[in-house]
Amino acid sequence: MEEPPELQIPGIVHPLKLFDIAKNEKRLLYTSAPMVRYSKLAFRQTVHAYGTDLCWTPMILAKEFNRNRLARDSDFTVSTVAPQPPTVVQFGANVPQELARAASLAAPFCSGVDLNCGCPQSWACAETLGAALMERRELVRDMVVETRDQLRRDGWAVGKDSDMDHPKGRSVSVKIRVHKDVRKTIDFITTVLGPEQDRHIDFLTIHPRTRQTPSSIPINLEALEVLTSTFGDKVPILLSGDVFAMDALPFTSPLLPSSSSSSTITTNTAPKGTATTTTETPDLNPPMLKNLPKLRGLMSARALLRNPALYAGHSTCPWSAVEDFLYFAARAPLPYKLLLHHVAEMCGPGMGPDKRALLTRAERAELLECGNVLDLLDFLEEKKGGIRTRSEGLRGGWQGKGKYE
């Protein structure tokens, strides 16, 4: 985080440019969610290798980020060489100057900054962070306005669409939940978005659950339909929530691959970035799904943890994704327990209809008994019949790293 300002960080692309590219390709933008502990560099690099266009960091507390160099180095890691995924840094904040200062520190190393207005955890809401901000729309507006003004004073190009091709172009965005009464959410977005000729944010992510709604309850598609219809022409909108499988989304969109009368099943033996399909008996009475023509992108969290190749068309995690993750983690190290958790998630069943897994439940329990990385690599080699890394020296790269033991 403290590199000299002239250092060139690869992978910095304005998010609006990525929205534009996806639209020209007649598809939705594919993004990974901000996940506490999990959205670290190695994981971001892995999902990016399998079709994720734009990645989020975990939520970072702006106050700590501003005051503590150790916190900056711990919370936000970037790569000075490719692959460096286009990355949005998400902050938790409730003071305009704190968010603006944190954005100023992060801007040289990322594509944009995002304000978290969606975290429902009690500790965050008690500090007027996350979903608690859904009741403070004027404060949220003031925070994004101050942040954009600060970035402009720092010399960053924050003119929204007009600056998406500028090398110093940066975005400011917000991730929200919804209210029980969708009219309150409309008022919130209207206030935060600001005037149409000079909107305060570049894009918006909507998680269509209330602060009190558990993740086991399906997302509120009626609210999402109203909000995308109302604001979809004014600002690009991402959906966060229930993005579990590309062939089992709870809605339709002209930017999704056209549905046929047959189901698509993806094998986990296809090459990276591709999928093999088989035809099943067509459903003669398919359910009527809501059409969301103004939705511009998808954001996945839990499903990407299980299957980093979700957006590449794989219905379950392929072995190659596990290999790639280990390759990236050797160069952007994680605490061993976190590394082990990632691998265990990838080796389990996906969150979509296809429940195949790389390892059985008993094998995953055995995997969790591995005491260090070398044991883990030996175990995976045995189970896969010779797992191969992307680099000749990967195994040696893990040697001598005491923090992994």
How is this structure best described in words?
The chain is an alpha/beta fold and 405 residues long. It folds into two domains: 15-312, Alpha-Beta Barrel (TIM Barrel); 319-404, no CATH class. Helix content is 35%, strand content 11%. The protein contains 15 helices and eleven strands. It has helices at 15-24, 41-49, 62-67, 69-75, 96-106, 122-126, 137-153, 182-193, 221-231, 302-306, 319-331, 336-346, 361-367, 373-384, 394-398; strands spanning 29-32, 54-56, 60-61, 87-92, 112-117, 171-176, 203-206, 237-240, 251-252, 290-291, 297-300. The protein has an eight-stranded parallel β-barrel with strand order 1-2-4-5-6-7-8-11, surrounded by five helices. A two-stranded parallel sheet has the order 9-10. Strand 6 (171-176), helix 8 (182-193) and strand 7 (203-206) form a beta-alpha-beta unit. The chain starts with 14 loop residues before the first helix and ends in a 7-residue tail after the last helix. Mean pLDDT is 87; it is low at 259-271, 274-282 and 396-405.
